[in-house]
Automatic annotation (TrEMBL):
Name of protein: Clr5 domain-containing protein
UniProt entry tagged with the keyword Transferase: no
ANK repeat positions: 438-470, 543-572, 646-678, 678-710, 713-745, 748-780, 783-815, 818-850, 884-916, 920-952, 958-986, 1057-1089, 1092-1124, 1127-1159, 1162-1194
Keyword list, A-Z: ANK repeat, Repeat
Residues covered by the Clr5 domain: 89-139
InterPro entries: Ankyrin_rpt (IPR002110), Ankyrin_rpt-contain_sf (IPR036770), Clr5_dom (IPR025676), Multifunctional_ANK_Repeat (IPR051165)
């Protein structure tokens, strides 16, 4: 926290553990524990210097026995609360409600004593008396209470409202009310209650503790629910069976002048957040803020997650609708009234109190994001309102403890060290994981900020440098610091504090050990620090490679030398010690684990690192896997990525890099010139690279000239040289005995002749032919080409003529997969000259295509939108000829070419032809509808295309596709041509209906819906994708729902596994639709479907819309309906999980069972759900109202485990203590 004025006694008493008014030795040991004795100098001293402390006073701090209070008075020159002075009106207003409540049951002297003792508020009797007169305070008599009750009951009766009466939070039976009214009210007063004047007059201020309000709707009597003890109600009387100081929840009040935007405390006293007398210091005033009230509202808007709130009714509604369900009301309209008050702020203290109280409630129920608390803390510090937080810190309650844990994280993130000190002095567990979604710890945040001083402070307070949160923050503070920081001082501090230098990564998002993290950052000095801290130099995990592998992979000579000097294994991953990690990594596709350091070095072309490793007798061929992983043959070598490329031997990698010096070094060191772990052999690589010197060197050292081509796209040395066109290399290989007709690779292979033709090298082609090369060698099975086919594919007319001269077969069959005949290849290449040559040479127009991804000649012309060629081919081509893809007609429809479609139809093409392309087969009419071309649709329908045709790959019928395109004209055209609005369902499931599809659109076209109903669509026909039409309509709007009901839809229709219309409507917010369904006779208690189903009430509760919940309860919804078998919940369980405490209260009053059985799979009881999600207030409410003592210990234990597993440690502790307390009572 940053302040312009000096610190008070209160300020410094918090960080160093002193209590105001006591004589004691300054707790310098505690100060040291918080990092105050570190090299940067004493925090206490630095605080003094920052706030103008006279240096002459500092020596007092080393005196063993001093009057601490006197020292601080001398240092700060500020009066304490015991000094008589004027108390500002703002301070009185902050305490007003507390004083008023106390005064109703205490004498003035007792009030003064309690205010001084509990709130640190000191004023003289005369000051109190003047204020009481100004406020018109008076004690409520018993007669006054019952007069008020009688008047309110009579008034509400005249208004037709039912009522119930609470006094001090207890529901008063009607019998007792009548007795007390007759006892205390004179007949004369009673007779006036019926007069118009009295009943029309404004209601008087209710006496303290008295409440007359509306009961739950319906004809039943609501169950009494004890809720005044929960934090957001602020009762001063602890209701739980735990020690009082633990369950005296936060009690935050505000001034009577402005109230509090979310003041649910009624008349309960506030024991904190009253500003100290220092507020009136001449340098600071709560009434002269640094920011405007508009900024306060903006902060508040950020906290509740709404845009900036304006001061109007819309803003009020936005806030109340968002909060309705989370906060309970004690009187009708209380939430609205309190929300309105925030728009009438008159002081910054009031704004701070309101924002702070609301933040405490939300954060203690895990309903705030860390960024929202950050924003509030920034604003309070900016406006000098942080003293309110300091007052809050003194309160020992679970709500405050949870809030302070959040505050500690925010203060650390904002680097507000004084606030961190203040929170730590409260005894907050510094290792508590905090965060609504992404959890973190204070030390983790401090390391991210690189704040050495904060790190020291937190470590000395017990922070764990090795703590990680397995379900959120996947790395420890030490790991995070090493990964992203070069602050060696910070890292050394963490290591000295017990940081584990050998902590292993726990997931693939942070796949580094500390050593490999430092290496990836190129930080040699940090590597030395970690090694000195006993980091294991040869550690390998399923996520991380060894340090030496990592250093070689990043090409860092210095770190490589450091590691080998420290004993790094130069042959990792050889050996059994690495087997487990290596095998697991390989299964997960992590190939780096199978690459040795020398392979990484060769890939990086680093001769120096290779030499270092060879000097240490590293295996010159690297790590070669046995047996070979044949799946690597499927990888395209030219497009492989780093991990896979490094799997090659060092010699393969050196040849790839064309580094003849490194090649010589490896060969001299004994490298096998034919070793092949993955990819081409060194000789094949050299030939592919057109490197004649390396070809000669390798052949001299024993390289095999006829090693077969690898399976996927491989080439023998001669095939590679023939493609590159280097005649010299071809001659050398032929001289060494290269096989001119060696078989091509299985996938995309080429013989030497085919490779020469593909490269366009006519002279090499001639040479190979003269040596016996086969010009008509068969194409490889997958993606292969004959010499003529590859020339046609390249549109190389010169090569085509040469090959035809060499008697190349013009109609050689296409490869069985992804092949092309010469004519098909020429057409695909848009080359009319090649097409003409081939046609003149007798190319077969109707030659069958490949079975996989093949294409006929006619299909190729249609793909090119070549109407002229298509018409030429149609003169002799079979328009319904075989094709492995779509029929030409389907392709023409996809292209939207109506002229092609008409030409094909006129040539006799079957309008209902279906191609063979797997995964995307469809009819032409379906393609036309998808393309939105109504002219083509008309052509096809005229040609007798089936208006109801569909395929397995495209199961949607044309009518459904037209609805998806939102084209009413197409819908009407299809309906007029026989489209079936009610298709026959399949055996396993009903078909997707047109009506169901129309209703399911994000924006429903109601005209299309009308057309479908008019065409006879069955409104009770279920759809495989969308369920019953009425259920879908109910999720949209009332108008559609009414239209389907008018058309005869069954209001209680239900398809197995789908919600009813009412259940679906309750998932939304349209209360009018729900009312319509109820009025039509919808079954309000229809059971939930077994798998993730919800009853109407359960759905409404999960959505959190209170008016809908009230409506359902008023119509008899069963709040104890069974949860769905799988991932369901009762209404109470859902409300508890969501932290919607007012809905929990509503359901409890309606008789909801607290211990109802959860779903058998993925279910939670209400208590377990609240604890697991961090809902402190709900946990409190449920425990207080759980009347079933049997099994309470086990229930609390299960809930405590769930809370702890999700980082809600305070709730977990409370549940365990509650269990022990109850056990003690039983004993």
């Amino acid at each position: 926290m940053r302040r312009s004025e000096p610190y008070s006694v209160r300020d410094l008493a918090l960080p160093i553990g002193l209590q105001q008014g006591k004589k004691s030795t300054p707790n310098l040991a505690l100060a040291a524990n918080f990092g105050l004795n570190q090299p940067r100098g004493s925090m206490l001293t630095s605080n003094f210097s920052r706030h103008q402390c006279p240096t002459s006073v500092l020596p007092h701090l080393s005196i063993c026995a001093v009057d601490t209070l006197s020292i601080f008075r001398e240092v700060f020159k500020r009066p304490t609360m015991s000094d008589t002075r004027t108390i500002t009106d703002a301070e009185w207003e902050v305490q007003k409600k507390i004083i008023e409540r106390l005064y109703q049951n205490q004498t003035l002297g007792e009030v003064m004593s309690l205010m001084e003792q509990d709130h640190g508020f000191i004023a003289k009797k005369a000051q109190y008396t003047r204020k009481f007169k100004q406020w018109n305070f008076s004690k409520n008599s018993t007669s006054d209470k019952w007069k008020f009750v009688a008047r309110e009951l009579e008034k509400r009766k005249r208004d037709g409202k039912e009522s119930e009466t609470y006094i001090n939070g207890k529901l008063i039976p009607n019998k007792k009310i009548k007795k007390e009214i007759s006892r205390y009210l004179l007949p004369s007063y009673y007779s006036t209650l019926g007069t118009v004047d009295i009943l029309q007059a404004p209601s008087p201020q209710p006496p303290t503790g008295v409440e007359v309000c509306t009961p739950r709707g319906g004809e039943w009597e609501p169950r009494f629910v004890d809720y005044l003890h929960i934090p957001c109600i602020n009762s001063s009387i602890p209701q739980f069976t735990l020690p009082e100081e633990q369950w005296n929840f936060h009690e935050i009040e505000t001034t009577a002048q402005t109230g509090f935007a979310f003041d649910f405390s009624g008349d309960a006293p506030a024991r904190c957040l009253s500003p100290s007398v220092e507020v009136a210091d001449e340098n600071q005033s709560p009434l002269t803020s640094h920011t405007s009230n508009e900024e306060a509202r903006s902060i508040f808007a950020s906290i509740i997650g709404d845009p900036y709130l304006s001061n109007d009714e819309d803003a009020t509604y936005a806030v109340t609708s968002r909060l309705d369900g989370f906060l309970p009301e004690r009187q009708d309209g209380e939430l609205v009234r309190n929300v309105k008050k925030i728009f009438d702020l008159s002081s910054m203290v009031d704004a701070s109190l309101q924002l702070l109280r609301y933040t405490v409630f939300l954060s203690s129920n895990d309903l705030l994001f860390s960024s929202q608390i950050d924003k509030l803390l920034k604003w309070m510090i900016k406006t000098d309102q942080s003293f309110l937080i300091e007052r809050l810190i003194k309160i020992k309650t679970p709500s405050v403890e949870i809030f302070l844990s959040h505050l500690l994280l925010s203060a650390t993130r904002l680097q507000e060290i004084d606030m961190v000190l203040a929170v730590l002095a409260h005894g907050i567990d510094v290792n508590t994981p905090i965060g609504r979604v992404q959890k973190s710890t204070a030390l983790y945040e401090a390391t991210r900020k690189r704040d050495v001083h904060l790190v020291r402070l937190l470590l000395n307070a017990g922070a764990n440098p090795n703590a990680s949160i397995t379900f959120s923050q996947m790395e420890s503070p030490l790991q995070a610091s090493v990964r992203s920081d070069n602050n060696h001082e910070l890292i050394q501090i963490l290591l000295d504090a017990g940081g584990n230098a050998n902590v292993a990564p726990i997931d693939s998002w942070t796949p580094h050990t500390l050593l490999t993290s430092a290496i990836s950052n190129g930080d040699a000095a940090l590597v030395r620090i970690l090694l000195e801290s006993k980091a294991e130099v040869n550690m390998m995990t399923k996520y991380s490679i060894t340090a030496l592998q990592a250093a070689a992979s990043v090409n860092d000579v210095e770190i490589v030398q450091i590691l080998v000097d420290a004993g790094a294994d130069v042959d990792a991953p050889f050996g059994n010690r690495y087997e487990t990690a290596r095998v697991v990594a390989a299964k997960n596709g992590k190939f780096k684990h199978q690459v040795s350091p020398i392979q990484f070095a060769a890939y990086n072309d680093n001769i120096e690192i290779v030499q270092i490793l060879l000097d240490l007798e590293a295996n010159v061929d690297g790590y070669i896997q046995y047996p070979r992983d044949e799946s690597l043959d499927d990888v395209d070598e030219e497009n492989d990525y780093f991990d896979v490329a490094c799997l090659k031997t060092p010699l393969q990698l050196a040849v790839s890099n064309k580094n003849i010096i490194l090649v010589r070094l490896l060969l001299l060191s004994g490298a096998d010139p034919n070793a092949q772990n993955y990819g081409d052999t060194p000789l094949q690589i050299a030939a592919r690279n057109d490197d004649i010197a390396l070809v000669r060197l390798l052949l001299r050292n024993g390289a095999h000239v006829n090693t077969a081509a690898r399976k996927n796209g491989g080439r023998t040395a001669l095939q590679a040289a023939a493609y590159t066109g280097n005649g010299g290399v071809v001659q050398i290989l032929l001289h060494e005995g290269a096989n001119v007709n060696a078989l091509p690779a299985y996938r995309h292979g080429r013989t030497a002749m085919q490779a020469a033709a593909q490269g366009g090298h006519t002279e090499i082609l001639r040479t190979l032919r003269e040596l016996g090369g086969d010009v008509n060698a068969k194409a490889s099975p997958r993606g292969g080409r004959t010499c003529l086919q590859v020339a046609a594919e390249n549109s190389d007319t010169e090569m085509i003529r040469l090959l035809l001269k060499f008697r190349a077969e013009v109609n050689a069959p296409a490869a069985s997969e992804m092949g092309r005949t010469a004519l098909q290849a020429a057409i695909q290449g848009y080359d009319s000259a090649s097409v003409d040559i081939l046609l003149k040479s007798g190319a077969d127009i109707n030659a069958p295509p490949s079975l996989l991804e093949g294409m006929s000649a006619l299909y190729g012309a249609v793909c090119n939108n070549d109407l002229t060629l298509a018409r030429q081919l149609l003169e002799t081509a079979d328009p319904n000829g075989a094709t492995s893809q779509h029929p030409p007609l389907v392709k023409a429809a996809q292209r939207g070419n109506s002229a092609l479609v008409r030409s094909l139809i006129e040539a006799g093409t079957d309008a209902n032809a279906l191609g063979q392309k797997k995964g995307n087969s469809q009819f032409a009419l379906q393609a036309a509808v998808e393309g939105g071309n109504i002219e083509i649709i008309r052509i096809l329908l005229e040609a007798q295309a089936d208006a109801n045709a569909s395929t397995h790959d495209v199961p949607s019928k044309p009518l459904v596709l037209a609805i998806g395109e939102n084209r009413r004209d197409m819908v009407r055209l299809l309906l007029a041509n026989g489209a079936n609005v009610n298709p026959t369902p399949s055996v396993k499931s009903p078909a997707t209906t047109a009506l169901g599809h129309a209703l399911a659109r994000f924006v429903v076209n109601e005209d299309i819906v009308e057309d479908l109903i008019a065409a006879g669509a069955d409104v009770n026909r279920q759809s495989s994708d969308y369920g019953l039409p009425l259920s879908t309509a109910a999720s949209k709007n009332r108008r559609l729902t009414q239209r389907l009901l008018d058309a005869g839809a069954n209001v209680n229709g239900q398809w197995p596994g789908r919600p009813t219309a009412l259940q679906q409507a309750c998932n939304g917010l349209n209360i009018d639709t729900i009312q319509l369904l109820l009025d039509t006779g919808a079954d309000i208690n229809a059971p939930a479907s077994a798998d993730m189903g919800r009853t109407a009430l359960q759905a409404a509760v999960q959505r959190g819309h209170v008016p809908i919940i009230n409506l359902l309860l008023q119509h008899g919804a069963d709040c104890n309906a069974l949860a769905a078998e799988s991932y369901g919940g009762t209404a109470l369980q859902f409300a508890a999980m969501e932290g919607r405490i007012s809905i929990v209260l509503l359901l409890l009053r309606a008789g909801a069972e607290i211990n109802a059985a959860p779903s058998t799979r993925g279910g939670r009881t209400a208590l377990e759900g609240a604890a697991e999600h961090g809902r402190l207030d709900v946990v409190s409410l449920l425990l207080k109202n759980d009347a079933d003592e049997d099994g309470i210990d086990a229930r609390c234990q299960r809930a405590a485990k769930l809370a702890a597993a999700n980082g809600h440690l305070v709730i977990s502790r409370i549940l365990k203590q509650y269990k022990r307390k109850e056990s003690g009572q039983k004993d």
